[in-house]
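Notebook, p. 212. Picked up where the previous page left off. The plan for this session was modest: take the two constructs that came back from the sequencing core last week, fold each one, and keep the raw output in the notebook itself so nobody has to go hunting through shared drives later. Recording the first one now, exactly as returned: residue sequence, then the structure token string.
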Amino acid sequence: MTSASVSQSRRRFLAGTIAAGTAAALPTPRSLGQAKRSPVVLVHGAWHGGWCWRRVADRLRASGRYVVAPTLSGLGERSHLASERISLTTHIDDVVNEIKWKDLDHVVLVGHSYGGFVITGVAERIRERIAAILYLDAFIPMDGQSMSVLRNSGAPPLTGPMTPAPSAATFKVNPKDVDWVDSKLTSQPTGCFTERARVTGAYETIPQKVYIRAPAFAQASFDAAYQRCRANPQWRTLEMSSGHDVMLDQPAELATILDTLG
């Protein structure tokens, strides 16, 4: 064999070895989902989108977590797909499919505000994949309840196929972020608020359960949920000093709490 052919064979061998090593080193969603540190799935509230979790998600990823922050159908960057056919069930499907298609297990599942309805429904469907559940200033519905029933009694009636977003100031967002948040909020299909939840209590069987309340934002249903959880020794309860959008106002503190779960 000539020196040229030997050199060519060596290059082919090295190229194959490097390619194989690189392929083996690249993590798949399944391997990430089964890693020692639990993946985190962040579910936003009404009128918001996955964008609102960026500050928290960046911190969790820096600590080694695999993070998914889906935007629910018809909202945020998916608002061009808005339809009156979108309902609470659609949003539960959104999150269930994120978890299934990304092969995630031992998940830390977080729901903000209306997202409490969504994660409660997710627990009903794939309880076996969830290691921890955290309600962030959120609704915890009982069977047969809808958000339209649980929201503040003084709120305007829900009419029409879409419900316009309130102002960021309503959520007591920190002053620096008000204009930015207002530019991101989108109308939400009203069916998400009027569909009744189907709840057997699957979320109560999840090993780690946390409720975080931001009392600066007045909401009687959140107060009631917080007190129920606080009275149950199986729950961990905390209060935050920010407005309702804790993920925007206190992202470092929230990320620290989430990093203890799973």
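Okay, moving on. Second construct, recorded in the same format:
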Amino acid sequence: MDIFRQGDVIVAPCSIPNGAKQTGTEVRIASETGNPHVLKGKVFSSGSQQYIVLDEPSQMTHPQHAPLSLQPGSYEVRTVRDYIGRVMLD
């Protein structure tokens, strides 16, 4: 199973969970710079988790990254943010 990443967005093949509701036709995730990562397909949600079904080869786009090519299938979409913990100094 391949996992794909474009900046702070991770896309991983999966099965859409039973009960997930179709909520749109594109995933649009704003990055830390405010520019969106965009991937068009059938979008499903279950709780706060998003999924996308691609019926044909598709590309996730973002102005600061090369396009990410994905094959048809079902994918889980996650956001990853870098975190630097707080350091306590005496």
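Notes on construct two before I forget. The mean pLDDT is 89.
Flagging for discussion at group meeting.
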